[in-house]
Write a structure and sequence with these properties.
The structure is a homodimer of 192-residue chains. The first copy, chain A, is built from 10 helices and no strands. Chain A is mainly alpha-helical and 192 residues long. Chain A has a domain of 130 residues: Tetracycline Repressor, domain 2, CATH 1.10.357.10. In chain A, helix 1 packs across helix 2, helix 1 crosses helix 4 and helix 5 packs across helix 10. The longest helix of chain A has 25 residues. The N and C termini of chain A lie far apart (55 Å). Chains A and B meet through helix 8 and helix 10 of A and helix 8 and helix 10 of B. The structure holds a DNA duplex (30 and 30 nucleotides).
DNA sequence: TGATGAAACTAACAGTTGTTAGTTTCATAA
DNA sequence: TTATGAAACTAACAACTGTTAGTTTCATCA
């Protein structure tokens, strides 16, 4: 029926991510994950090698999806405003499709071990690319001459928190939402 | 020397909050907290009654500080724009003075137990007050007619994340920063 | 039918957790 | 000097942690 049905490992990672969002990585036990799947904790080890392995799977693939998205935005020849629109679209899309994993990406990354440095590298590169778009936009007079660090912080923290908010709004029209978000983040809310 | 020197309990709460920010509440052990203070875990219990007690102390007093700040902004007779400026000021001030506790407020509130409902009540009331300011601002044509839920989410998530960013900038001029933040959050970044 | 292998199970492990009980240390006050 | 009390200590606990070893179940296929 399903075109490519979920493997048992993928199911474990998906269920674990939900629990990680509710309680955080450390507070979730292997017995919690197993119970939610209707099996015993020891059975999980037929499919994964460790609890750490689950966290790696949750975080790294999503972090790479952000990196890939940024690469294609970067390499397009769009102007600043269109690039910013595309970044907002990227976050709305990935956050609505992976709202559980986004929680770990934001809150549990410090519990990565072997893959911690790799994750940090991806994050720094993403921020560098974003900052470059803003600085180029200032140079081109597309955006105002405010501190690019503060702009980056302000926009990115909102985008990184979408996972908290999106799932609460059941009947959310994502396209309309993206447009409103663009308006508020980029054009401001004041009536001049 | 110090006008009102820190009690031992306050010291425990302060040290614990630093560790909670680094690793999250669940990942921090009583032995971690004790080690950082140069004593044994059992000795902590001369001053506090439980680990839970520490988390309560970290989170609740800060949550109440936000509530108190909002009360005085609400009851002032300022216009929408000045109220928004004051809210930004409140967050910058409390986040710079309590950057460790802010992390628990954002990430560890779900591990509150007896005080969980009280915390949730404070948070909902704070958001309701903020929303009312925005809706009144739309009515008064001070701000644009965008979805107030999206505005609230967008501004508040940035303000709630200040604790991540502020301590990284050593020589940050808080007053200048507040002004820049106001400009970006309220007036937008586009060059029209 | 009998063999195979994936995926569940039971039982147990060694280490860590928050916490308690009882004891010692030591500056200050009587 | 002696007594007091705050605040440290050692030792231990029961519960829980991630993980391993060995076993059982059962659908599939030669």
């Amino acid at each position: 029926m399903s075109p490519k049905s979920e493997t048992r490992k993928e199911e474990i990672v998906r269920v674990a991510a939900q629990l990680f969002k509710e309680k955080g990585y450390t507070a979730v036990t292997m017995r919690d994950i197993a119970a939610k799947m209707g099996i015993k904790a020891a059975s999980l080890y037929n499919h994964i090698t460790s609890k750490q392995d689950i966290l790696d799977a949750v975080i790294i693939s999503l972090a790479e999806a952000f990196t890939n998205g940024m690469q294609s935005i970067k390499s397009s020849n769009n102007n600043t405003i269109d690039k910013l629109k595309q970044i907002i679209q990227l976050h709305v899309k990935l956050s609505s499709q992976n709202s559980y994993a986004m929680a770990s990406l934001n809150n549990d990354w410090m519990h990565l071990e072997e893959r911690l440095d790799y994750y940090k590298k991806l994050r720094v590169e993403y921020e560098d690319d974003f900052r470059t778009i803003l600085v180029d936009g200032i140079t081109a007079s597309d955006i105002i001459e405010a501190n690019p660090e503060v702009m980056l912080f302000s926009i990115l923290t909102t985008l990184r928190s979408l996972y908290i908010w999106i799932p609460k709004k059941e009947d959310l029209n994502l396209e309309e939402f993206t447009t409103t978000l663009y308006q508020i983040l980029i054009e401001g809310i004041i009536n001049k």
